[in-house]
Amino acid sequence: MQHMVETNGIYWHSQHERSHPDQLGFIPDFLSAYDSKPAIEQFAENYCGGWMDFKGFTYDEQTGALKYPEDPDTALLYAAHLPNGEVVRIYQHAWVAVFQPDGSFRVARLD
């Protein structure tokens, strides 16, 4: 079942058949469509742990999964497009990836 959740002017669309709005936790509350700062700056300011990059992930364009060496794929749960062209994707286990229009991305865990 597909879900859509709106917070602070941002629409989060489910990306996995078993995703549920509860899996979003408080993560959407750290962003606002009305704030012109990039997503990572907003997370750094609004999330108590800030934004700490976690290196080593790759992205599977076919499945949308994040991959980390020797770990099972991390399933994409929700995605949102920000007004500045960034795409924020929320994965299992509170992994969050911010994708830039050029395809580059950064990952952090916001739990």
List its salient traits.
two-stranded antiparallel ribbon, mainly beta, 1 helix, 111 residues, globular
Describe the structure.
By secondary structure, this protein is mainly β. It has one domain (4-109). Helix content is 7%, strand content 31%. It contains one helix and eight strands, in the order ββαββββββ. It has one helix at residues 39-46; strands at 4-7, 10-14, 58-59, 66-67, 76-81, 87-91, 95-99, 105-109. The strands form two sheets. A six-stranded antiparallel beta sheet has the order 1-2-5-6-7-8, with no helix packed on it. It starts with a strand and ends with a strand. The model has no long low-confidence stretch (mean pLDDT 95).
Number of domains: 1
Strand order of the largest sheet: 1-2-5-6-7-8
Shape: globular
Structural class: mainly beta
Helix fraction, binned, reads under 10%
- Spatial gap, N to C terminus: 25 Å
Largest sheet: 6 strands, antiparallel
The average pLDDT is: 95
Could you spell the SSE succession in H and E letters?
A: EEHEEEEEE
